[in-house]
């Protein structure tokens, strides 16, 4: 049977090429007839009359191989199941290719896909996990070989780039068609909109704060601190017992961006941070310099983190926390599942927002993990919209919460679900205090700014540049982004 399948596939590929096809990108995708819903297809996409990819081959071979196998498997005199009333051809499913970053073996997301395919027999979703999405997505979409639906970062330096390049379908009409505004939280739409047009649905509501090992705190007679000075005192007490106060790995660079978001929100405040992100307040103002100085210089010099911060990965810093070598971890609620998994850590884990600095009102970062978008060249926009609608329907909320410990962008009652106390706390905080929370800076700032932020913070930690120099460089990067027109205005 395997030999027959290989011969059949090879023959089909040769036949496809001889008929005018050309091998395309090395990926599998089956796409059916194009649709014109919510857009004029000929106006928005490049001509495909002479371009053939593996999606065309799979469509071509899918129907042909089915016909060949149907004939090959019928023995003489066998009942073909046809009669005078049964001659209608089988309806071809509309194929939808989804790229995300959850991992191929993500049980929760795979379950959602299965449910969708069962509930919508006219469509078939194929999901592919892409670990290098940022590197390949734009190029693939440009070439007409990208996914129909993608799960991607929502910021102007990510999805915003795709939107301005004309590679995404607007979803404003879909929001009306499916009444998404009635159940999708406003932030999920706002953060996926660019230049007044909505392109996606943001997902994974999250907050950033401090997780701590409750066993260690109890044994050392410590409590969650109320002020920055109290926090420093906790760090000193832990260090005196040869316990790493805070685990931090910044080899991946982006963790420093979240740390900067925490301190900028607490020192500069939510309104000033929004103004800076929008290009209306300079990043080298004293509050932002201090927001760099305290975590990247002062606390490093005081020994409140593990050594070799820039050489330690994010995952390895989590291992320091799991093992009890470190008592605290400044990170986001996306780690709730990991920190409540007894296979990772058996000690109970608590959470507090980083405390007030100089009696200022805290503005802990809150935002979205990523968002779902539909490609301009999606072969079935209706199917893509139906899939997005299903992702955040009553049928799937439990999959997100109970199966993956992720918070979907919908109005919900946390008590209706079997979830951890940490996740329930996160949901309640977001629902009750969203208006007072700050921002994850790198999700909202342009790509050139983020590059300066990530590279520059490593240099500050490594004593290559000062906090003031980094703040000056951040402001220069923002001015460059303003000239390019890639800055998002998030001010009220």
TrEMBL record:
The UniProt entry, under InterPro entries, shows: Bact_solute-bd_prot1, SBP
**Superkingdom classification of source:** Bacteria
Q: Which residues form a coiled coil?
A: 457-484
User: Sorted alphabetically, which keywords does the UniProt record give?
Assistant: Coiled coil
Q: Does the keyword Repeat apply?
A: no
**Name of the protein this chain belongs to:** Extracellular solute-binding protein
């Amino acid at each position: 049977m395997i030999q027959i399948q290989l011969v059949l596939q090879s023959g089909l590929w040769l036949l496809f090429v001889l008929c005018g096809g050309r091998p395309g990108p090395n990926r599998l995708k089956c796409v059916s007839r194009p649709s014109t819903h919510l857009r004029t297809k000929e106006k928005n996409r490049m001509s495909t009359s002479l371009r053939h990819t593996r999606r065309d081959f799979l469509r071509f071979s899918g129907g042909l191989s089915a016909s060949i196998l149907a004939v090959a498997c019928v023995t003489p005199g066998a009942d073909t199941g046809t009669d005078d009333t049964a001659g209608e051809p089988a309806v071809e499913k509309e194929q939808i290719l989804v790229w995300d970053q959850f991992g191929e073996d993500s049980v929760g997301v795979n379950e959602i896909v299965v449910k969708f395919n069962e509930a919508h027999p006219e469509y078939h979703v194929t999901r592919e996990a892409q670990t290098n999405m940022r590197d390949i997505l734009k190029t693939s979409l440009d070439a007409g070989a990208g996914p129909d639906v993608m799960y991607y970062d929502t910021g102007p330096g990510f999805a915003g780039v795709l939107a301005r390049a004309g590679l995404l379908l607007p979803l404003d009409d879909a929001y009306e068609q499916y009444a998404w505004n009635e159940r999708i939280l406003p932030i999920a739409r706002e953060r996926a909109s660019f230049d007044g047009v909505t392109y996606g649905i943001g997902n994974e509501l999250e907050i950033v704060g401090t997780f701590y090992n409750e066993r260690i705190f109890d044994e050392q007679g410590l409590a969650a601190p109320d002020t920055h000075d109290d926090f420093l005192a906790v760090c000193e007490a832990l260090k005196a017992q040869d316990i790493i106060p805070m685990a931090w790995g910044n080899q991946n660079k982006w963790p420093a961006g979240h740390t900067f978001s925490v301190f900028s929100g607490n020192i500069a405040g939510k309104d000033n941070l929004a103004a800076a992100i929008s290009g209306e307040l300079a990043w080298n103002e004293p509050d932002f310099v201090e927001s760099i100085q305290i975590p990247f210089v002062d606390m490093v010099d005081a020994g409140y983190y593990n050594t070799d911060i820039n050489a330690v990965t994010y995952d390895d810093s989590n291992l320091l926390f799991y093992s009890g070598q470190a008592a605290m971890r400044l990170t986001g609620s996306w780690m709730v599942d990991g920190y409540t998994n007894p296979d990772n850590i058996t000690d109970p884990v608590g959470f507090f927002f980083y405390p007030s600095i100089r009696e200022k009102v805290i503005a802990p970062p809150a935002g979205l993990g990523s968002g779902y978008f539909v490609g301009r060249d999606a072969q079935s926009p209706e199917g893509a919209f139906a899939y997005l609608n299903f992702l955040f329907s009553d049928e799937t909320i439990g999959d997100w919460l109970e199966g993956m410990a992720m918070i979907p962008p919908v109005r919900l009652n946390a008590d209706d679900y079997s979830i951890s106390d940490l996740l329930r706390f996160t949901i309640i905080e977001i629902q009750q205090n969203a208006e007072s929370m700050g921002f994850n800076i790198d999700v909202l700032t342009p790509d050139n700014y983020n590059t300066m932020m990530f590279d520059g913070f490593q240099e500050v930690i490594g004593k290559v540049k000062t906090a003031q120099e980094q703040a000056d460089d951040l402001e220069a990067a923002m001015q460059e982004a303003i000239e390019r027109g890639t800055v998002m205005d998030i001010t009220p």
